[in-house]
Structure to design on (958 residues):
């Protein structure tokens, strides 16, 4: 009996040198595999992604080590992934401890450390890993979770190998405990139980125990070596690529696209994989094939030919074809255009840039930036884009807005509102009300502007509009891929804004909000940009908007639809909700809300493109609105509003009525309706303030 | 093969009807904030010319009679694929009627390398005279084929399709000749590539004044215009909306029919 708790390493094992001899091919295979990945990434262009390492490290610990993102998406799956990954990490540390004791001859494997960490914790985490594996197998082959239906053969092989490693590990431990009558055996409860079970099953003879132990020990070791050597050639490589991708993630505002020096760039946008930067190529390798992006993609949900996971994996396959998946592969195949080789144009044009995929991805893969890069090439170098998108872009170029055949002018909506003044008249104002094209030109959406003007007027804010001096921000052109036109529009608007010395901008359109706030700084436009939901929240909090309780009585319940460019792009989920709550109506949430909000289908230029009937994202969302139990859906984006109005009309038709089942109201409209009469009647303009 | 294409910069025809105003003094459309674009059929003419060049080689020259702003139109033509661009400065020109426009354009075309084909749009997008092509042919002493959606080289001459009421007339014409182009599915103007737009910004634009074309006040001054616009106004369109009463569809239908008969619509 030992005095201090420990165990004899390599008990019962002879020819230990063999383990070192086998280590060599394993390490060589591993190193070659890793090197090959690096070779693949180096095909990309340079980009700075190692700055601000403190912030990067923080993200690394939260999302790679703590797997925060993983858990926030699909809690059950995230939890089991933690069990599995942390199980293996702890077991790996345990193996390292053995190495330190046996090879570095630093005696650390004894005493409390041995009992608590090397025995108990290892056992518990090992068991946890088995549970995690079992759930992973269950979800793939029994429950058949839809997002996990890709690469099932490889998954099966990897999961089975890990299971074998864990089970043989426990068998080996159990046999040692019973064979040596380990006095500390109860500190390894899983091992002890396994040993006793084996004994009960008939492996009672000391000699048999030794023989079986020896066989399983070598078997366990061999499988482990093969597994580790195979990691870089399999999706298990995400063990390294995922943390790498998280560490080198984009730290810029999420809503900002990287500008492109159109004048001096040889290839505009991305044609071949080599036009991507190395982080884009790392992304392709970092994808864990978890399918979280697929599960949240609105385009995929309605059957459009886009699956963000396959977008990444198809490009990964092309990279493998061109550069090789193994280091000895014939390298440097002629780079081929991505569109037409691994991605179809329809796939590219199906994306609404809703950012749901990027938000859901646990390893910080940036789908949207890649999609826009590919669009840039299609639009600027090939002039290949859907005709409808082309008409919108042409409209922006020819007449400063994308709405073909618009009947109104930018000044129509306030023609009868004397308190709406233009900067050209007043010279300056505290707030510039940036109206946006959708609001200015669409008759339904104009009511948003009228409501917002009434609100600002009621709150005695000093505000003005640009009138005809406003033009499209360029956002649709940018998301469609015409960076050249975007930059022209941005520069023109910034010149106008700076000439007036504008400091604060209020807008009801999240697309204008996002691009002016996050993208105009790249072109010299720096303003305090406020979304109307934020301004109204503040005005309400300051008591500057007298509401009349009960004015919205017919709306008992209201549900709020998150605009992608306000929510996921700019993390503003609470301001609009606070406003709805202040209106004295009950707010009901749809299943898909906040980060998981379901796109209306309009972003990324999709508003102007044709939708196949039956594959319309707004109808899918409208169905959810219709079952929410609310009498009205509150939007905070003119595009969302128009898409909901349209989708709900289709739902009405489906239900055999002409009346939309749920009303659509912009946040500003609800607030303007709820304003106390006296307040609205300031200077006797109540009637004019809210047209309908 | 050298093709000259006459393009005219016009007020955006897609301007909203409510924003459209007429300047009563000048008797012309008030540009307001409307943008300037190339006339729609002129773009079709450009497209036809560029397609022809792509098939048979040669060069395309875009020309316009316009103000300095019309350079934008020429830049677009260059971006689409024209090789040269010529602006005839309109400041000394009073082109109130198509004959003056045609005279100026003809003088400019004579200054170019010899042309094989001159294309115009079927009609300009604003005044809609539909005459410049024919008058230009007259000035240049060339045959004229109107309403051409497509054409191609045939031997030493050209084979042109002309749209006629309910059919197509196919004609052969010698080179050089003048044709006015109408729109068709196969001459939808192409979207220029951004690379080409940037290149177009660097290409030179030749500018002529009427003097350089040998035209004096007698040819292009006010006295050269014989037509006078007496009045220009936006017709007032009155519309009334009346809801047809009735208990059900049948009754509403009967009431509608009665009203239509009363008003002698049917
Ligand atoms: C889009 C559109 C749709 C229409 N639809 C209808 C309809 O459905 N029904 C109907 O009744 N009418 C319609 N019209 C109007 C109608 O057809 C006309 O009233 C008419 O027949 C004649 O045209 P034009 O004289 O203006 O051409 P011109 O002014 O003679 O111009 C003809 C061409 O000459 C060239 N040109 C002219 N000026 C210049 C210049 N300064 N520099 C260089 N080149 C120049 C251009 O190539 C131009 O296209 C339509 C018009 C347009 C534009
Ligand atoms: S941005 Fe939205 S629509 Fe586009 S791929 Fe991602 S989830 Fe799908
Ligand atoms: S891209 Fe991200 S979310 Fe999509 S499958 Fe890959 S790892 Fe999962």
């Amino acid at each position: 009996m030992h005095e201090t708790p420990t165990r004899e390493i390599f008990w019962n094992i002879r020819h230990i040198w063999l383990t070192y001899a086998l280590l060599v091919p394993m390490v060589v295979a591993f190193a070659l595999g890793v090197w090959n990945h690096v070779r693949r990434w180096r095909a990309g262009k340079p980009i700075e992604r190692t700055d601000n390492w403190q912030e990067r490290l923080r993200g690394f610990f939260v999302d790679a080590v703590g797997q925060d993102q993983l858990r926030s998406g699909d809690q059950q799956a995230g939890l089991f992934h933690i069990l599995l990954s942390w199980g293996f990490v702890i077991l790996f540390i345990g193996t390292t401890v053995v190495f330190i004791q046996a090879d570095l001859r630093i005696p650390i494997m004894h005493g409390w450390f041995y009992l608590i960490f090397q025995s108990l914790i290892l056992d518990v985490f090992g068991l946890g890993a088995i549970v995690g594996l079992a759930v992973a197998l269950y979800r793939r082959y029994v429950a058949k979770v839809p997002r996990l239906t890709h690469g099932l053969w490889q998954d099966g092989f990897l999961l089975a190998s890990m299971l074998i490693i864990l089970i043989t590990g426990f068998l080996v431990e159990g046999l040692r405990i019973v064979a040596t009558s380990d006095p500390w055996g109860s500190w390894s409860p899983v091992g002890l139980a396994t040993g006793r079970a084996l004994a009960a099953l008939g492996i009672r003879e000391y000699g048999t125990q030794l023989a079986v132990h020896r066989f399983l020990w070598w078997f366990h070791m061999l499988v482990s070596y093969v597994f580790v050597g195979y990691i870089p050639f399999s999706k298990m490589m995400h063990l390294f690529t995922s943390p790498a991708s998280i560490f080198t993630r984009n730290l810029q505002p999420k809503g900002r696209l990287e500008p492109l020096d159109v004048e001096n760039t040889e290839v505009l946008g991305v044609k071949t994989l080599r036009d991507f930067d190395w982080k884009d190529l790392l992304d392709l390798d970092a994808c864990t094939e978890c399918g979280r992006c697929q599960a949240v993609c609105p385009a995929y949900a309605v059957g459009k030919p886009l699956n963000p996971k396959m977008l990444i994996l198809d490009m990964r396959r092309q990279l493998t074809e061109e550069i090789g998946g193994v280091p000895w592969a014939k390298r440097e195949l002629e780079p081929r255009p991505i569109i037409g080789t691994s991605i179809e144009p329809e796939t590219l044009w199906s994306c609404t840039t809703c950012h749901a995929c990027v938000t859901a991805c646990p390893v910080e893969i940036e789908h949207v930036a890649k999609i826009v890069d590919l669009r840039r090439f299609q639009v600027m170098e090939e002039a290949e884009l859907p005709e409808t998108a082309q008409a919108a872009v042409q409209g922006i170029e020819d007449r400063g807005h994308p709405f073909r055949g618009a009947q109104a002018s930018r000044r129509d909506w306030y023609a009868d509102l004397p308190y709406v003044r233009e900067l050209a008249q007043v010279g300056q104002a505290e707030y510039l009300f940036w109206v946006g094209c959708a609001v200015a030109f669409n008759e339904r959406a104009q009511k948003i502007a009228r409501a917002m003007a009434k609100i600002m007027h009621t709150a005695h804010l000093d505000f003005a509009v640009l009138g005809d001096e406003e033009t499209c921000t360029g956002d649709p052109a940018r998301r469609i891929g015409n960076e050249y036109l975007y930059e022209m529009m941005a520069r023109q608007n910034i010149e106008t804004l700076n000439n007036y010395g504008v400091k604060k901008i209020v807008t009801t359109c999240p697309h204008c909000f996002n691009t002016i706030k996050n993208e105009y700084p790249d072109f010299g436009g720096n303003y305090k940009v406020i979304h109307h939901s934020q301004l109204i929240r503040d005005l309400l909090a300051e008591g500057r908007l007298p509401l009349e309780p009960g004015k919205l009585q017919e709306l008992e319940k209201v549900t709020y639809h998150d605009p992608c460019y306000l929510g996921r792009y700019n993390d503003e989920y609470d301001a609009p909700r606070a406003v709805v709550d202040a209106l004295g109506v009950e707010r009901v949430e749809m299943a898909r809300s906040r980060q998981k909000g379901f796109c209306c289908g309009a972003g990324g230029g999709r508003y102007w493109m044709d939708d196949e009937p039956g594959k319309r994202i707004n109808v899918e969302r409208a169905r959810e609105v219709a079952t929410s139990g609310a009498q009205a859906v509150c939007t905070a984006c003119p595009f969302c509003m128009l898409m909901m109005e349209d989708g709900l009309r289709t739902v009405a038709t489906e239900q055999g009525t002409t009346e939309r089942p749920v009303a659509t109201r912009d946040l500003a409209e609800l607030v303007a309706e709820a304003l106390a009469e006296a307040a609205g009647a300031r200077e006797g303009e109540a009637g004019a303030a809210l047209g309908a | 093969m050298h093709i000259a294409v006459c393009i005219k910069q016009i007020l955006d025809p897609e301007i909203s009807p409510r924003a459209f105003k007429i300047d009563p003094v000048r008797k012309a459309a008030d540009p307001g904030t409307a943008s300037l674009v190339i006339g729609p059929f002129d773009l079709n003419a450009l497209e036809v010319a560029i397609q022809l060049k792509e098939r048979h080689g040669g060069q395309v020259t875009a020309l316009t009679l316009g103000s300095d702003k019309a350079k934008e139109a020429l830049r677009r033509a260059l971006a689409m694929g024209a090789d040269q661009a010529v602006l005839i400065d309109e400041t000394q020109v009073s082109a109130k009627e198509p004959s003056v426009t045609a005279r100026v354009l003809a003088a400019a075309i004579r200054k170019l390398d010899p042309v094989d084909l001159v294309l115009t749009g079927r009609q300009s997008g604003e005044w809609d005279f539909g005459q410049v092509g024919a008058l230009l042919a007259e000035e240049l002493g060339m045959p004229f084929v109107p309403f051409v959606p497509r054409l191609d080289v045939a031997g030493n001459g050209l084979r042109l399709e002309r749209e006629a009421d309910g059919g197509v007339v196919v004609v052969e014409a010698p080179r050089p000749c003048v044709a006015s182009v109408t729109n068709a599915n196969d001459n939808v103007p192409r979207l220029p590539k951004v690379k080409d737009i940037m290149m177009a910004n660097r290409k030179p634009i030749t500018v002529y004044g009427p003097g350089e074309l040998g035209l004096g006040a007698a040819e292009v001054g006010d006295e050269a215009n014989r037509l006078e616009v007496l009045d220009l106004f936006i017709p007032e369109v009155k519309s009334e909306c009346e809801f047809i009463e009735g208990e059900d569809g049948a009754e509403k239908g009967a009431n509608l029919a009665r009203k239509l008969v009363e008003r002698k619509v049917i």
Notes: Chain B touches chain A through 19 residues (CB under 8 Å). Residues 40-56 of chain B form the longest helix (17 residues). The longest strand of chain B covers residues 59-66.
